[in-house]
Amino acid sequence: MKKKTVKDVALKGKRVLLRADLNVPLSDGGVEDDTRIRESLPTIKYILDEGGRLIIMSHLGRPKGEVKPELSLAPVAERLGELLGQEVVMAPDCVGAEVKALVDQLTDGQAILLENTRFHAGESKNDPAFVAQLAELGDILVNDAFGTAHRAHASNVGLAEVLGGSVAGFLMEKEIEYLTRATESPKHPYIIVLGGAKVSTKIGVVDNLLKVADNILMGGLMANVYLSAAGHKVGKSKIEPDLLESARRGLSKDLDGKIKLPLDHIAAEELSADAKGEYFPQLDLPEEVMALDIGPRTVESYKSILADAQTIFWNGPLGVFEYESFSGGTRAIATAIAESSATTIAGGGETVAAINKFGLAGNFDHISTGGGASLEFLEGKELPGITSISEKE
Ligand code: ADP
Ligand code: MG
Fold it and tell me: pTM higher than 0.85, yes or no?
């Protein structure tokens, strides 16, 4: 890798700021899934073993610049402490005099976790005053937050500028190496499966993905937007006009018919755990229902395309997999990808949750910790969080 890593810098006695991605799902005040904490452990352990004084930064959820006690990283500090077998001090904030005093007390090999960086509006705005406050706390920046690499925020990009660069942690290094290898000269057929509900952040990547992939198989709410753009009746699904416009543009550019849309649906009047899914063999839905999963004919057609693939990238569940009635499509496609002999990569918060739910994690070649970041990487875009990591001399 051309980028400097944590192995290229002296850490002993240094105050090492680590931007990690500890944005884990919480429930009942505890950590529900500690995958992201475990993924960050190699870098954390390495810095501590080398005698660094470790100051960990992360965001959690979307507090939008306000202190939201339910989005505190305190449960993460506890879980991290258990996994490390040593105390991780939980700071009351991520900047300020009190935090500075705690950081000054650290000795070599000790760790502190700063409170949610997004409790301050300056984080997402990459505000110089906030960056300066963070910079007071450390000497070196290690960036291990691949999931945030598509954002130019204070704790990854701003800090790197002020501290004269940053180095990659092991997770960041692994993500860059894997995604580069798989996508620089991907083996064809290269098939992308794109679903989920975060349509506004995903629709923008489709045009560029069409340039690299042989097919894009759509599912989830994403597919409903494209079906609507193609003139089909999508029932109750609410679709914003500007998304519709983007989808229409995408379809009109797709002269080779690379975009594949569902052929049938599982739909219901309401989205709830006990809603019964009804099968609709046709594309146009009546007004009172919404499509919540792809139907069996779609599954068969997508499976036959996936059967010939040499490279598969999957982001976004094909239906509301959290509820049994609407999980069939996601389960079937996830299984087909897992059993494929192609190089298989998946990314995205809920996508990874679905893979774990179906017990298929061991069958993927790479599971990226970044959803949006991995999509933008595959698109060939420059990610500011990666650009800000220093190059090897
Ligand atoms: P990821 O985190 O993998 O990138 P998204 O955040 O875009 O995926 O979307 C995940 C969510 O999409 C899931 O929680 C799932 O319930 C929802 N979803 C999937 N299909 C539909 C659908 N047809 N209608 C509404 N929501 C859907
Ligand atoms: Mg998500």
Answer: yes
Instruction: State which of 218, 320, 351, 376 you would mutate to test the pocket of ligand 1, scoring each by most atoms of that ligand within 8 A of its C-beta.
Output: 320
pLDDT in tens, 333-387: 999 999 999 999 999 889 998 999 999 999 999 999 888 899 999 888 899 999 9
Where does residue 251 rank: exposed (0-12), middle (13-18), buried (19+ CB within 10 A)? middle
Cα(22)–Cα(39) distance, rounded to whole angstroms?
9
If pLDDT is split at 50, 70 and 90, which confidence band does 1 have?
A: low
| Cβ within 8 Å of residue 317, ≥6 positions away | 195, 196, 219, 220, 330, 350, 351, 354
Ligand 1 atom closest to 354 (CA)? 3
The catalytic position among 198, 236, 248, 381 is 198
Per-residue pLDDT tens over the stretch 24-55: 988 888 998 898 999 999 999 999 999 999 99
Hey, whose CA ends up nearest to atom 15 of ligand 1? 320
Which is the catalytic residue, given 196, 250, 347, 349? Answer: 349
How many other C-beta atoms can be found within 10 angstroms of the C-beta atom of residue 166?
Answer: 27
User: What SS3 state is found at 32?
Assistant: coil
- Pairing type for strands 53-57 and 15-19 reads parallel
Q: How far is Cα of residue 212 from the mean position of the Cα atoms in its chain?
A: 20
Distance 219 CA to ligand 1 centre (A): 9
| Ligand 1 binding pocket, CB closer than 6 Å | 195-198, 220-221, 224, 291-292, 315-317, 319-320, 322, 348-351, 371
Indicate if 147 belongs to the active site.
no
Nearest ligand to the CA atom of 350? 1
Residues 267-302 have pLDDT tens digits of 999 999 899 999 999 999 999 999 999 999 999 999
The question of whether 36 is a catalytic residue gets the answer: yes
